[in-house]
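User: Predict structure, ligand zinc ion.
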Amino acid sequence: MSLAALAMLLAAQSSAPAPAVAPVLTSADARDVHSYAQPLEARVTHVSLNLYADFDTHVMRGIATLSVDAKPDARQLVVDDNGLRIVTVTDAQNRPLPYTVGAADKVHGAPLTITLNGNRTVKIAYASAPGAKALQWLSPEQTAGKKQPYLFSQGEAILNRSWIPTQDSPGIRQTWDATVNAPCALTVVMSGERTGETPCHDGRHTASYRMDKPVAPYLIAVAIGDLKFKPLSAHTGIWTEPAMLDKSAWEFAGLDKFVTAAEGLYGPYRWGRYDVLVLPPSFPFGGMENPMLTFATPTVLAGDRSLVSLIAHELAHSWSGNLVTNATWDDFWLNEGFTSYFENRIMESMYGKRRAAMEADLAWTDMQNAVKEAGGPQSPDTKLHLDLDAKRDPDDGMTQIAYDKGATFLRTIESVVGRSRWDAYLRGYFDRHAFQPQTSAGFLADLRQNLLKPGEDAKIGVDQWVYQPGIPANAVHVRSDAFPAIDAAAKAFAAGDPVSAVPDKVTTQEYVRFLDQLPRQLSAERLAALDERFHWNETGNSEIRFAWLRLALANRYPPAEASAEQFLTAQGRRKFVAPLFQQLQGQGESGQALAKRIYDKARSGYHAVTQVTVDRLLGR
Ligand code: BES
Ligand code: ZN
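Assistant: Predicted complex:
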């Protein structure tokens, strides 16, 4: 990074005083079954990392210094550990402290129990395992530039314990700082404020970051690679590999306006800068809301800005999720449902009602499909507030329901109380609970105290929405007035109308709707007609490509197979990859043989998160 760019980054940092670390909630519903921590005895308030990124052995090693707040008589601190090699545990004066690593289970890892001996500072020297779940070490071939290796972390939901020994629970907020040592050719970025860097020495340098606002520990993130920065405004910019920098900067040129739009809805953006890191194609998610630095898949780079709602979504998490955080993974909908609602409001304010309605209507269909996938409206997996089994990977319970049923619930509240009361309430809600964890019951209590008038609670059916399965009858379905024409076109085309009657040059959302509305069984002749006119086997718009491939593979349309192979080996976003493999796997021997052939080629390029899902689908 140039000195000028560094100076700009440093200058833009906020100087507002850091909020105090929020206490851990004590109510029974706030107990996190996915962490070994016993925060009411002793809890971590600050994590200070001094780490060396070893690209030869794929290990992060160094020291984590934990600041602890504990009851006067607390004997021990319990932190989460997934596969770490613990070297020493000492107090601030480097005197050894007794510790034990308990029995590990596959999902949660093990408790690391440290005897405090009256100390409130604990230093852990450790190393991550080469297969640490939160870390993906990419070879140069797996990057866009092909010359340098790359590392990125993904903490949500409970992966950060594989590289940071701390209390890995979303209800235990922590401030942090980090100094990371890496090869000089690589730039280190993190989800915090950049505070300095050292010059190159013996081929290595360090970069320092800090987050002085207490955050849930799943939000600590790092990426190291051949990264360049392009500012988009004084407070926003893009980090990515040089080969993707211009394309990314063009796609997200409106970033600053997104922040302004979001602030106009729900109050000030409290994190200082807002930058986006565009990752290599193996990034398993669409996006991840790491504070100050959203991580995003390159599959949003459609070339026409048509998929930017993903950025609206990750930005919205700067309020819902990062500011007010699900206390446990049972409350995941508080993160994702609020964010999906907020995302759509940002889209409306940026692009107008037409675009927002199309996206909301597509999400309605996604919601209906999610209910079916969960096993129907009676399934407990369709509840907003989950009751995740301690033994189950929280990732399994975290479905599209949290997103789309969550957003629909909030839209239903809006329709009952009216937009102006609802918006004023939400703004106050984010203020009241800023930098604190929240449970479902806590939100409902706040709603009843600060918004609902007599009769409205029953009219909305608040408890049913949150604690019962299925979609309540009063759910507000936003209908796009662009879709009836698209639906009619799909119907007519399926019935044999010429392909020339299919509307051309419509929006991405309309094409996706068109493809999803077509019957799942379509003749090769009909598919060939679409192929010839729209060339969807080659489109670089990932959402259209995905919708097309789902349809074409369902019919085993031969020309789609090479396209599927290309798409599945070129990116590893789980949302695209898993359904396509699932589709093939359900098609008997020939589909399974194709799935196997493609997966054999693609698997090593995927992130562990995607590998685990596809392994399961293909019975590996
Ligand atoms: N926070 C999520 C990603 C996530 C969820 C990671 C659960 C690990 C566990 C992120 O904000 C998200 O929802 N991403 C979506 C895109 C969004 C536009 C719906 C995704 O990755 O598909
Ligand atoms: Zn999200």
